[in-house]
Structure formats: C-alpha cells, structure tokens
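Notes to self after the call with IL:
- keep both proteins in one doc
- input above output, always
- annotate only the second one for now

Protein 1:
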Amino acid sequence: MRIAIVCLWWWLALSIVNAGLGIWRIDPALPNAMFILLVASIAMVVFLLFNSFLIQSVDRGRKWARNTFTALRGIGIPLSVLFAFPREVHSSWSVPLFLFSSVIALSGVILLFVPTSSAWFDAANP
C-alpha cells in the first residue's frame, strides 16, 4: 500500500513539473499571453490541491477517493494523449516526462487494487 501512495505522490510531482514546462512555453507575443498564463497557473494550483486531497484521502483508506482517483486517471491519461500529443509546443522533456508519469500513475492505481491493498481499505472502512 505504501508503494502505491508513493507512486501517486511521484505522479503528482512529475505532472506539476510537466505542466510548468508547458506553461512557460507560452509565447509572450500572443495578445492574451498574461491572461493565458494566469488561467493556466490557477488551473495548475487547483489541480495540485484537488489531487493532493485525493491522495491524502486514499492514504487514510477512503474507498471513494481510491475509486475517484482511478476514474480520473482512467479518463485523464487517454485525454492527455489525444489532446496534448498532436501539438508541437512540447519541450524535448515533455513527452518522455508525460509517459513516465503516466506509467507511475498507472502502477500506483494497479497497486491500489491488489489484494493486500483492498484488504487494507476494507479494514480502514468497517
């Protein structure tokens, strides 16, 4: 169970780094560059806070958080592949970092559902 939680925290850290790399590649010559940067930064903070809350809830043994995190990763990873990869605004580290963080997230989610973790969630929620 601890390895799964560590994987989820690493996924969150790598996702924030990757998002930060993407945000700072916004062309300052765009007419609304500062507004785009502001909205993207606010979205990144909301993403960080919400996922931190979910991971902490998973760590406390909340089944709803485990299921919510799984559903969001099940939706988020394919959508990221569909909408992020066709664009050519990525730095040289963006795609490998995304793939590595996706593998870590997938590993963490799988580890949340192994029998020992499921038993831990059942014991935490009588």
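Protein 2 (the one to annotate):
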Amino acid sequence: MEETLGRPADQGEEPLEARARKRVRARSDFLVHLAIFLVANLGLVALWKLAGGGYPWFLWVLIPWGMGMVGHGLTLLIGPESPVEERAIKREMARLRPRHPGR
C-alpha cells in the first residue's frame, strides 16, 4: 500500500488536481479578503479625515481586522495543507522509515 503525505493512497486521498484547486481557491480567497480590508479601511480613514481628524476611531476597526488578516495569511503559509506542513510530514515520514530494511 502506497502512502502519500502520511495517508494511505487507497483511503480516500484527494486527487492531486482537487488539492491544487483547494490551495488556489484559498489563496484567491485571501486576496479578496485583503482587497476588501484595504478598501474598507482606506474608506474609514478618508471618512475620518473628511470629518476633521481628531480621535482616530477607525483604529477600532483596523487593528482587530488587521489581526484577523495576519491570522488568515499565516494559515495559508503554515496552516493545515500548507507547503510547510507537507514538508514537515515528508521529513517525519523519512525519519520514521526503517533505516535498514530487511535486518
């Protein structure tokens, strides 16, 4: 039985194309989220400026949403099914394989 990234190949492994589509969709979802974040927060800053400045109330939206954006980005980079996770799984599989089969 062949193993692929820690999962046996005959136990419901997603086809390669489906996994690639999932990753591409995750990246495009992040870019849409980023675009909305930028447009909305630039609009809030512009509204704040037009209203005469003063207390920077827009930060009450920008900071928590920005923290969410960082989390979303980190999930893409090091989260489940990320390239980092796959490299770690391959390293672990190599470490767990017997070094001298047949002994």
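Annotation: The radius of gyration is 22 Å. The CA atoms of residues 79 and 85 lie 7 Å apart.
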